[in-house]
Amino acid sequence: MRLLLRILFYACALAAGCVIAIAQTAPDAPLPDPYKLMQTALANEKKLADQQERYECRVTSEGAELEKNGKVKKDDVEVKEQFYVNGVQVERTLSKNGKDLTPEQTRKEDERVMKETVKYSNKATAAKEAAKNDQQAQDMMAAMMLTRGHRQLVNGRSALLYDIVPNPKFQPKNLNQRFASVMQGTMSLEEQSGEMIDLNIRSMKDLKIAGGVVATLHKGFWLHVHNQPQPDGIWLNDLTEGSGDARALLFIHPYFRFKEVTDNCHLYTTSASQVGPAKAAEMFYTGDMIDAAEALRLGIVNRVVPPAQLESEVRALAQKIAQGPAIAIRAVKQALFGRDREELVALLDLEVEQQMKCFSSGDCDEGIRAFFEKRAPKFQGK
User: Fold this and answer.
1) 69: which DSSP letter?
2) Parallel, antiparallel or unpaired: strands 255-267 and 55-66
3) Helix axis angle, 123-143 relative to 34-47, nearest 10°?
């Protein structure tokens, strides 16, 4: 089930990656081509993939197996942290069913995450994964039709709302195309960027895998996906949920529901200019960790508050800024950060180039081996 969910998430959610444009379109203006809008969203997602690297979020996944009457038979809850490596999403499990991982479970999870991080730190490998996801998206879009389009304001932005129906002229050739061909529902797109705001679909007929011998996803499977723009304009998925029933291998017939909430997203952007080149060099050379008080002293963070006060402090500051002169604040933001964009792009390109050299070095191999063998590394400078 998770495979089908991921396929549809990548294909239809078109999650992070486009700068928000607030400009509104006249209600009676001709509707743009929705497929071209989604292509634009995919293209912008690629351009802005580097910005995803600065995000780390918390993901709470709930999955339940149900009786026919809806009574919960088995319930599982996982809390994970989520981050991106060259645009590829990586998750690290923190707890299961309210209990932190044991030291041994943590060790195995750290090893798994390290392997994924190293794998996708190779840009060519990450690009292959992205190409696969793009192809899945193309397949899904070909199997669906968007009809009855109309324009509506959603949170002050011009949005396009569509009904989703299967494309009767399309002959599905693979699993995700077949999956899309049995779904029907609604979808809304942010008009300026093409980013998907909301997807709500349900299967209109059974989906049989290997003629139903391997598995059958029964009619009525429901999926809801919602995306949310972040303060800096990046779009991230904040809710994925669904329910249904399936039969596997002719015997198992579980009813299930799932819900995945993504929140508490942190944006990390720290430059050497914030702490001074000498301190930045020391931090990079030694890899020493710093606590919240030190981060505040160095100017990396603006404030340090107790966890219980974090939400109220953030809300109060956001409201204070929101009540200020928007045009002047926007001008100040552009003056402070706009001139650094080209320099940042050049530095990120240089960082990728140097990282590739590091990953192909003997010292990198030695560091990874030492990590897994739980010993101190012996670097040779090669």
Assistant:
1) T
2) antiparallel
3) 170
Phi, psi of 312 (to 5 degrees): -65, -35
Asked if residue 156 and residue 51 are part of one domain, the reply reads yes
305-357 pLDDT, tens digit each: 888 888 888 889 888 988 888 888 878 777 766 656 666 667 767 776 777 77
The tokens for 316 are 């109060």
CA–CA distances in Å: residue 328 to residues 126, 157, 230, 322, 334 = 40, 21, 21, 12, 10
Q: What's the token pair of residue 69?
A: 């009457």
The torsion angles phi and psi of 299, rounded to 5 degrees, stand at 85, 15
Classify residue 250 as exposed, middle or buried by CB count within 10 Å of its CB (0-12, 13-18, 19+).
exposed
pTM: 0.65
The last residue of a domain, from among 207, 237, 267: 267
Token look-up 């979020």 returns 57
Domain that holds residue 167: 2-267
Q: What is the pLDDT of residues 223-242, one digit of tens each?
A: 999 998 877 677 888 999 99
Per the structure block, which two tokens stand in for 341? 């964009």
pLDDT at position 47, please? Answer: 62
